[in-house]
Amino acid sequence: MKTRIKEFRAKYNLTQEDLAKKVGVRRETIVFLEQGKYNPSLQLAFSISKVLKVSVEELFVLK
Amino acid sequence: MKDKLKVYSIGIAAFLLASGLILFSIVSFKNGTFVGSILSIIIAIVVLVFAIAFLKREYKEVKKGFSIHDERSEDIMKKAGSKAYLISLYWILFIGWSSSNGWLYFEDISEATGIGVLGMAILFGLCWVYYNRK
Lengths: 63, 134
Prior knowledge:
The complex is a heterodimer.
Chain A: E1 2-3, H1 5-11, H2 16-23, H3 27-34, H4 42-51, H5 56-59, E2 60-61
Antiparallel strand pairs in A: 1-2
Helix pairs in contact in A: 2-3
Chain B: H1 2-30, H2 34-63, H3 71-101, H4 109-133
Helix pairs in contact in B: 1-2, 3-4
């Protein structure tokens, strides 16, 4: 799965650590998400989209 | 606090495992089983090195306010556990088959059980590393 987390994170000047703290996961999880190596649960996907103020469809793109 | 306790528990478990292996190595050396003795010492060193590196990293993360577990780490544990269990069945079969064929010789059942459990632990560790990097 392709994600645009990095792009939206940069928009709000958030580091990976900041985003990880806001959604309650480890920093590695954000790293793997950005690399498209991990598919998040629906709960995590919605939490990230809420923090980054975008819809889930905009954030995650099925390859 | 809960996460710090978890880190300490993992540290104690790793220390106990390494101590057990060192004791096993001393007993094996006294009994004249040099290969087993050297193998145990090597495994004990590997356990200690990995444990120190792992605990250092986890302690830093906990200090920064991150949780020791999240959905990805739990997912990895589940995947590694199930894969290690499946491979362990073949490992146990291999031990049974090779000892009945005379390829492996065990003094008693506890030695075979020990090798089996140690192999299972190593398999779990390898599976965890594989899924954590994947």
